[in-house]
Design a protein that fits this description.
Number of helices: 27
Distance between the termini: 45 Å
Strand order of the largest sheet: 6-5-9-3-2-12-15-14
Strand content: 15-25%
Bound molecules: zinc ion
Number of strands: 31
Helix content: 40-55%
Structural class: alpha+beta
Largest sheet: 8 strands, mixed
């Protein structure tokens, strides 16, 4: 699954850099498969499901029957499986086809545990059986279980059906052993309206006309797989396809949108070729579709169903009217991520959610690696620092958790989809791959795949294979970084130079933003250090260490930035690096900016160290470096909210630094422009608009006004940042104009964007109108939650109070999986200490104890923000007074 996407610039402007989520759970050693957590009795094991589905889209319900082939392992007179919101009309068991059937004597449903139990008058002896169940269920409006999405197409109202089963929602469509460990084969058939296209994991095996005009479609039987990977889609679709390595690759869209899918189709061809080679096990299904759907989720943007990836339109299609460079990157990244899961997750699956990171950390790393390789012109390798920051921002709070964590409930599993699982997982893999070398790493992955295909694993199964391939112990290092939480910190003492060699003393500690009460944890940290321009030297640092580097000069630790740790230099060493900043590789410039920002905000360095470094960035620094500086200045601007004088001083400085960069890249794309410049231009317009650059605001307004008659005034590449500036600064008349445009828009994808824009307005009265809009279905059933989330950017307290005040109405607008994180997520962006009690009261009223991890992190984020405003900003004020 790919989490919901939000652009870097928007993230910075919305103050999202420290994010939200996790649980506080003690480190747990990886469990053995046989002992894996289960919520079901282990007396029965399913081997095959034959599902027959009759959806009634118009009435948002379905009827179905399933025949489950299963083995009874321990004699029992009852069978318990997962079921949610299903009503059973019949249940019977037999020893096989044609054998006498025994009807269940009692069917009981436990809504809290999401189980159904079937009791039989006679005990079932050990052996093989077929359980046949007839039942009905509900088609929802949010992405959980089987759900519908409504949209306009050619002026007509349409409804399409899709499924979303991760992590534990297959039980809403099929009574099943809905845990990743219970792999089985699936044969799905469905009765569907003629003229609609049905899509599932496997290709269609047959289609037959029924007497009433409907069609019975049968899909080929799937390989052995987990329930959460099953998919069914139905609607007025069209499909484009291509063949790579004997596999048919397809993109499925709503009718009329296929023209926007060519880039996605081309991407999937290139990625499949790459993965067939990398994994050493060829993609095992006959086809792989990617189904684009209108609407959105607050939780995810795409899902890796085996052979039938599901992606919301905004994360896959490129509409030439609005598509930007970053949309193109997103489309490719999301495909690369979900396709990596076809191996890591689908072919080899974690035994239980404790090891979810094996899916998500790996797919995230593979996505970055593949994007870097196949689109070198995007310089994607530079994003590694931003990824690491997303993880560390959360990992340095006391409420963090280890990458491998114990999960007991479905709610906890939902909360595990966070930046520790994804971004820390990715960053740790990057470090370990760098440590053993990429050939050894790949050899390890290949043998892991070959050995565990169609099976389930825990993290140690991966370490074992990599260690064998690398002939180098990595399990102990991997355990340090995955079984214990937190961020290591390496202190670097001033260097001593003698006989052309530099000696540095290093001390390993821990970086925490809010914890002082505990001895630092201990890690074996793979460190790479060099003198600037000299050869890199490697060491494994645990406790105290010294390194000798060839050459004399400025010392750079974590050179290349593959390490997951913070580097704290002694003042003289940092001053030397500041002086050398302009000549460092871009990746190290990014790493130094990030470290100095975080260490400064945490009080371990002067808060202004970041500004000292940023002031050394030359105008022609890499676009990613300027994006990061702009993003940090935007975050500072946000931190000064409610302090107008100080904010004005920061804004003045930000304009002085950033306006010349925008002047250099211009508003119009140069013919020979490098691809990342387009992203920088977008970020600069956004941030300069936010810090009140009159020239940028005026130019945005001029272009917006001119666009009514001149298409070239607002080309696709500039449309989003221009509208962002217009919407943020909108008065009532402008807001009404944008609202009218949103209402009239025909494209579901563009319509969603326009409704989001209405929500980023700074004016409070207009933001209130956006909140009211969120309660309606005007922008579509999945849009309300997004509107509120965007209002929370400028007005977190207002958005939170409104959301909780309308809790019942809003809960229906969020998919079940995101409920325990959505509300705390809004409040967690506040800087008002009063929000802390509000969040505690919310958790007490609405959340079970095991689902309060996001609330705790939201509270920790607010506490940190309050501390930062009172204790750290004065140093920034003083710096600005001197340099502003
Ligand atoms: Zn994923």
């Amino acid at each position: 699954m790919k989490r919901s996407l939000i652009s870097l610039a928007v993230m910075a402007l919305l103050g999202l850099s420290t994010g939200l989520a996790p649980l506080t759970v003690a480190a747990a050693p990886a469990a053995k498969a046989a002992k894996a957590t289960t919520q079901l009795p282990r007396n029965a094991v399913p081997t095959h499901y034959a599902v027959s589905l009759v959806p009634d889209a118009a009435n948002s319900s379905f009827s179905a029957s399933v025949v489950i082939a299963l083995d009874i392992k321990q004699a029992s007179n009852s069978i318990t499986l997962n079921a949610a919101d299903l009503k059973f009309s019949a249940a019977a068991i037999s020893a096989g086809p044609g054998k006498p059937a025994l009807a269940a004597s009692k069917i009981s449903v436990d809504n809290d545990k999401q189980t159904a139990t079937f009791e039989f008058a006679q005990p079932l002896a050990v052996g093989s059986y077929q359980l046949k169940l007839d039942y009905t269920g509900v088609i929802g409006t949010q992405a959980a279980g089987i759900f519908s999405l409504d949209y306009q197409n050619g002026g007509e109202k349409k409804r399409a059906l899709y499924t979303q089963f991760e992590n534990s929602e297959a039980r809403r469509m099929i009574p099943s052993w809905d845990e990743p460990f219970y792999k089985a084969t699936f044969a799905l058939e469905a009765t569907v309206p003629a003229g609609q296209m049905a899509v599932s994991n496997m290709p269609l095996a047959s289609t037959s006309k029924l007497a009433d005009g409907r069609e019975l479609v049968r899909f080929a039987t799937s390989p052995k797989m987990s329930t959460y990977l099953l998919f069914f889609g139905l609607g007025e679709f069209e499909r484009a396809s291509a063949v790579e390595g004997g596999t048919e690759l397809g993109v499925v869209t709503q009718k009329g949108s296929l023209g926007q899918a060519q880039f996605a189709l081309d991407s999937s061809v290139a990625v499949l070729k790459e993965y067939n080679d990398y994994f050493g096990v060829k993609y095992p299904l006959p086809k792989l579709d990617n189904i684009a759907a209108p609407g959105r989720s607050q939780f995810f943007s795409a899902m890796e169903n085996w052979g039938a990836i599901f992606t919301f339109e905004a994360a896959i299609l490129l509409d030439p009217r609005v598509a930007t460079q970053s949309d193109k990157e997103t489309s490719f990244l999301v495909a690369a991520h979900e396709m990596a899961h076809q191996w890591f997750g689908d072919l080899v699956t974690m035994t239980w959610w404790d090891d979810l990171w094996l899916n998500e950390g790996f797919a995230s790393w593979m996505e970055s690696r593949t994007t870097t390789r196949l689109h070198p012109e995007w310089n994607w390798e530079l994003r590694a620092v931003g990824t690491r920051e997303q993880a560390m921002g959360r990992d340095a709070l006391v409420t963090t958790h280890p990458v491998v964590q114990h999960i007991a409930t479905v709610e906890q599993a939902s909360q595990a989809f966070d930046s520790i699982t994804y971004q820390k997982g990715e960053s740790v893999i990057r470090m370990l791959e760098n440590y053993v070398g990429d050939d050894a790493w790949r050899a390890g992955v290949r043998s892991y795949m070959a050995k565990h295909a169609y099976g389930n694993t825990v993290s140690d199964d991966l370490w074992r294979e990599v260690e064998k391939a690398a002939h180098k112990p990595i399990t102990a290092i991997a355990h340090d970084f995955t079984l214990q939480p937190g961020v290591p910190m390496i202190r670097v003492a001033d260097a001593v130079c003698k006989n052309g060699q530099t000696t540095i003393a290093l001390t390993q500690g821990e970086f925490s933003k809010d914890r002082t009460d505990k001895k630092p944890l201990s890690w074996r940290v793979p460190v790479i250090a060099q003198t600037v321009g000299g050869a890199p030297v490697r060491a494994l640092v645990n406790g105290k260490a010294s390194m000798t580097l060839p050459g004399c000069g400025t010392v750079l630790v974590n050179a290349g930035q593959s390490g997951y740790y913070r580097t704290l230099y002694a003042p003289k060493a940092f001053a030397a690096l500041t002086d050398s900043f302009a000549g460092l590789p871009a990746i190290d410039q990014l790493g130094l900016l990030s470290d100095s920002w975080s260490l400064g905000m945490a009080g371990l360095m002067p808060a202004s160290s970041f500004l000292d470094l940023a002031s050394k960035a030359p105008l022609d620094a890499a676009p990613q470096v300027w994006e990061q500086i702009a993003g940090s200045l935007a975050a500072l601007h946000q931190s000064y909210e409610g302090k107008p004088e100080q904010q004005a001083a920061l804004d003045r400085y930000a304009r002085k630094r950033l306006a010349p960069v925008l002047a250099r890249v211009g508003w119009t794309k140069a013919a020979d422009e490098a691809a990342p410049v387009a992203n920088l231009r977008e970020t600069l317009i956004n941030v300069l608009g936010a810090v009140g650059d009159e020239g940028v605001v005026a130019e945005a307004r001029r272009r917006y006004a001119a666009s009514a008659t001149d298409k070239d005034a607002m080309p696709a590449a500039l449309r989003r940042p221009i509208l962002g500036v217009i919407a943020a600064n909108a008065d009532a008349a402008t807001w009404d104009q944008l609202h009218a445009a949103a209402r009239e828009e025909k494209s579901t994808m563009i319509k969603s964007e326009l409704y989001d824009l209405l929500a980023i307005v700074k004016d409070k009265a207009l933001a209130q109108r956006a909140l009211e809009l969120a309660l309606t279905d005007e922008g579509g059933a999945t849009e309300g939650a997004s509107i509120l989330n965007h209002v929370a950017g400028h007005h977190p307290d207002m958005a939170y109070d409104f959301a909780v005040g309308h809790h019942g109405q809003l809960e229906k607008k969020i998919d079940a999986t995101s409920r325990s994180r959505y509300f705390p997520g809004l409040g967690g962006r506040s800087a008002d200490p009063a929000m802390i009690d509000k969040l505690r009261a919310y958790a007490k009223q609405y959340l079970p104890a095991e689902a309060q991890g996001d609330t705790r992190t939201a509270i920790a984020s607010i506490q940190y923000r309050v501390k930062l405003r009172t204790t750290r900003l004065p140093e920034i004020d003083a710096w600005l007074a001197k340099h502003g």
